[in-house]
Write a sequence for this structure.
C-alpha cells in the first residue's frame, strides 16, 4: 500500500520532469516521426527561403540538434545565444542527419549580442579572452566540452575504486594540520594561539575564534584517510584542497581537486606504482571512449596517448639527477624543477616514476628506504604536459620513528594511529586538474574547471 503510494508520487514526478527531451538521448535513440520538445540555446542560425535553420545545444553532449523553423512561425526574435523551447517532429534529412521540424518556437530568454555578450559564433576566441568571463564561459563549446569531460572523468574514477572495493569517504576541508608542512596553508583563524586564548577569555569577537585554535583549509586529506584505512582497509577521497602558493603559473591553482587513496597493508612502493598506473590507464581509456566528441571539440589533434599500451618507466632520484646532468640540466639542492621534470618525461618517452627521494625534500610522514636512512620510499609520477601529476609514499609506521619526526603536538592523534592495531599503509594524491590537462591536451590548468582560483582572482 505504502509502496504503491510512493510509486504513484514518483510517476507523477517523472511525468512532470519528462516533459522535454535532452539532445544527448534524442540523438542516441532517435524516434523519427515522433513529437519532441527541446529546451536549449541557439548556437548558430541560417536564414533561408522557407526555413530558418537553428543549431541548438542543451549542454547534454557536444552535438547540436538542427531545428528547421518554417518562416511563418515568428522567427525575428531568434538570435545567437538566446534560450528557446521548441516543439516539433523528429525527422531525418536527406543526408541522414536527425533534425527537428518545428511547429512551435518560444524564446525563453533573448540574447542581445550588442548589449555586451562577449562571444560570437564566427570568432575563435582564445582561452585567455574567454577566461575573463568566468560566469559566461560555459556557453562556449570549448569550456562546455571540458566540463563534460571532467564530469565523465570523475564518474570513471568512482567506478574504478568501486570495482576495487575501496571505501569512499569525505575528508574535512577545515583542519588544524598542515599535512605537507610546507607552510602553504590558507589560515581560517588568527595565527597566534595566545591571541585566540586571550580573546576568548575576554569574551571578545567570538566569531573570529570559532574553533579556538589555529585552523586551515586542508592541503591534503591524507592524514584523515590514514585514520580510516587503519580500521576499514582501502579508502579514497576526491575533494577540494588548497595551497596558498604565490604562483600564477599554467600549472597551479589556489584551490584544486585531489584524488587521494590510501592502501591498507601496503609494504612496498611497487604496490602503489601498480595501482596508480592501472587507475590512470583505466580512466584515460574510459573517458576517451565516453567523450570522444568532446575531446575533439577541445583539441582537434587530441590523439590517444602512445603510453596507454606501454609500461610506465621507473628511475631513482639519483638516476634522474645523472640523466639530467648529462643533458646539462644540473639539479640543485631544492630538487628537480619543472623544466627538468619535462626533460625526464621526454627522455623516457612514457610517464616515469621517480622513486627513493632524499628525505630532506619530502614530508615527515614518509617511511625511510630500507638500507639508506637518507632516502624515503616516496614516488612522484611525471607525465607529459604537466610534469608531476601524482605524489605518494609508504607511510612511516614505526611509532618511535614517527614520534621523532612529528612536526607538532597537534598531530598526536596521527601518531596514536600507530599504537592500536597498526598496519603498514601507503598512498598517493593525484591532481584532478593536471589529469584533465593531459587528457584534454590543455596547456593552462585554469581551463580545466568551472571557476578557477589563483592569486588575486577570486571575484566570483
Ligand atoms: N595523499 C597523498 O599521498 C598526497 C600527499 N599528501 C600530497 O599532498 O602530496
Amino acid at each position: 500500500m505504502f509502496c504503491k503510494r510512493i510509486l504513484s508520487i514518483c510517476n507523477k514526478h517523472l511525468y512532470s520532469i519528462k516533459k522535454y527531451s535532452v539532445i544527448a538521448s534524442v540523438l542516441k535513440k532517435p524516434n523519427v516521426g515522433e513529437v519532441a520538445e527541446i529546451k536549449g540555446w541557439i548556437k548558430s542560425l541560417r536564414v533561408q527561403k522557407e526555413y530558418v535553420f537553428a543549431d541548438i545545444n542543451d549542454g547534454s553532449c557536444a552535438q547540436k540538434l538542427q531545428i528547421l523553423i518554417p518562416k511563418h512561425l515568428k522567427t525575428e526574435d531568434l538570435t545567437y545565444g538566446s534560450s528557446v523551447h521548441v516543439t516539433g517532429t523528429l525527422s531525418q534529412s536527406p543526408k541522414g542527419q536527425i533534425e527537428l521540424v518545428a511547429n512551435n518556437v518560444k524564446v525563453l530568454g533573448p540574447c542581445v549580442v550588442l548589449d555586451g555578450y562577449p562571444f560570437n559564433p564566427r570568432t575563435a576566441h582564445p582561452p585567455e579572452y574567454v577566461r575573463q568571463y568566468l560566469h559566461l564561459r560555459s556557453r562556449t563549446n570549448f569550456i562546455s566540452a571540458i566540463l563534460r569531460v571532467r564530469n565523465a572523468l570523475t564518474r570513471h574514477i568512482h567506478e574504478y575504486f568501486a570495482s576495487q572495493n575501496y571505501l569512499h569517504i569525505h575528508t574535512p576541508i577545515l583542519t588544524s594540520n598542515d599535512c605537507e608542512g610546507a607552510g602553504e596553508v590558507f589560515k581560517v583563524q588568527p595565527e597566534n594561539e595566545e591571541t585566540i586564548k586571550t580573546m576568548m577569555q575576554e569574551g571578545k569577537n567570538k566569531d573570529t575564534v570559532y574553533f579556538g585554535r589555529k585552523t586551515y583549509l586542508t592541503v591534503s586529506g591524507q592524514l584523515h584517510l590514514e585514520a580510516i584505512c587503519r580500521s576499514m582497509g582501502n579508502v579514497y577521497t576526491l575533494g577540494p584542497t588548497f595551497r596558498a602558493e604565490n604562483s600564477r603559473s599554467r600549472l597551479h591553482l589556489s584551490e584544486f581537486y585531489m584524488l587521494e587513496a590510501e592502501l591498507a597493508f601496503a609494504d612496498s612502493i611497487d604496490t602503489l606504482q601498480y595501482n596508480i598506473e592501472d587507475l590512470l590507464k583505466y580512466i584515460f581509456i574510459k573517458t576517451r571512449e565516453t567523450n570522444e566528441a568532446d575531446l575533439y571539440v577541445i583539441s582537434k589533434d587530441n590523439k590517444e596517448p602512445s603510453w596507454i599500451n606501454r609500461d610506465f618507466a621507473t628511475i631513482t632520484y639519483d638516476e634522474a639527477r645523472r640523466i639530467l646532468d648529462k643533458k646539462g640540466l644540473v639539479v640543485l639542492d631544492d630538487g628537480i624543477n619543472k623544466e627538468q621534470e619535462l626533460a625526464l618525461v621526454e627522455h623516457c618517452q612514457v610517464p616515469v616514476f621517480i622513486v627513493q627521494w632524499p628525505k630532506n625534500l619530502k614530508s615527515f610522514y614518509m617511511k625511510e628506504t630500507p638500507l639508506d636512512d637518507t632516502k624515503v620510499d616516496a614516488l612522484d609520477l611525471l607525465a607529459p604536459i604537466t610534469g608531476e601529476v601524482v605524489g605518494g609514499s609508504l607511510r612511516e609506521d614505526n611509532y618511535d620513528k614517527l614520534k621523532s619526526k612529528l612536526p607538532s603536538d597537534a598531530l598526536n592523534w596521527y601518531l596514536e594511529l600507530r599504537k592500536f592495531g597498526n598496519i603498514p599503509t601507503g598512498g598517493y594524491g593525484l591532481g584532478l586538474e593536471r589529469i584533465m590537462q593531459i587528457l584534454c591536451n590543455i596547456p593552462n590548468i585554469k581551463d580545466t574547471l568551472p571557476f578557477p582560483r589563483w592569486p588575486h582572482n577570486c571575484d566570483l
In short: The radius of gyration is 27 Å. Residues 141-163 form the longest helix (23 residues). The mean pLDDT is 92.
